[in-house]
């Protein structure tokens, strides 16, 4: 795959994954459209693609739940990719152990170029972002959803962010247990120092990512002031993030770290009574507003919220491409036409062409994607009952 300006899949193979027994899909550099009836398996295919990067995939389900009903109990996803002109082979999945028992927390195996990797964190180089119907409630749902959205953005810009987030989660679990068991103050102090170091690293990375994304949104406003996708105003709502955004120099991180460690120590009795840690980056939120209307996103109409989300994802894609020296990320858009009028749909397709990225999209009607088909080398596939075939082949089969 010769292109050096994007991350793109050339071949995708699914085995016992969700409703797919065995399927192989060969694609080119351009956008990929998967069309079919509801329940045909379109989102399952996107979910498989989402497992080619770090994390738990677009639905964050326990890995054993991804296995096909009636299958072996395990599953596998394999792909040949082009990453900045370099060919890669990625394989991931789980196998049923000899005792035939898989726990809900079973980890997946990851191989890169046929060599075993230490975990999905090794896939952080495969920059990817997605938009799914479940994210339509991002602005009105719980803060945890917005934190996940934020963390995916930060990780795509700062590969070291995942390690800091994992370190914070581990230390916080240790502290919660130590509080419950009334462990010694020196032990708690040591754990809280680890928490504080990781928390400040997270807060700084988040603050920088939101500042960069806000800058990209502002630049797009200047390039296209009449865009059909309203610009978003972003605000990090969290004490550490707010303080991190105000840091004038990196040397001030020590003060921020020491201050959070003191706050943890002072809050031990409160946290012990609550049974959890009540302050830190795990409690932060991302506030989003409809810029042109100066209105909180949660108060906007469903159509306006969808347009805001699309605009945010496009801004992320542009930012990631710029941060990665012009290499466009892989983008997954599930049922993207929902709640978009014809004008915004065509504006989205124009933005996709301009990004020069491989974008995987799903929909129930191939005709929805006609403007994109006419504008670029879009690849159209029909999904039906665990099979995927090129649209032309499907049409010929239907005629006979």
Automatic annotation (TrEMBL):
Binding positions for ATP per the UniProt entry: 36-43
Chain segments annotated as transmembrane: none
InterPro entries linked to this entry: DNA-binding_RecF, DNA-binding_RecF_CS, P-loop_NTPase, RecF_2
Disordered: region residues: 266-290
GO BP annotation list: DNA replication; DNA synthesis involved in DNA repair; double-strand break repair; SOS response
Recorded superkingdom: Bacteria
Keyword Cytoplasm in record: yes
Primary residence: cytoplasm
Cellular component terms (Gene Ontology): cytoplasm
Keyword field: ATP-binding, Cytoplasm, DNA damage, DNA repair, DNA replication, DNA-binding, Nucleotide-binding, SOS response
Keyword Glycoprotein: no
Molecular function, one GO term: ATP binding
Subcellular location per the Swiss-Prot or TrEMBL entry: Cytoplasm
Function text: The RecF protein is involved in DNA metabolism; it is required for DNA replication and normal SOS inducibility. RecF binds preferentially to single-stranded, linear DNA. It also seems to bind ATP.
Family: Belongs to the RecF family.
Name of the protein described by the UniProt record: DNA replication and repair protein RecF
Organism expressing this protein natively: Rhodomicrobium vannielii (strain ATCC 17100 / DSM 162 / LMG 4299 / NCIMB 10020 / ATH 3.1.1)
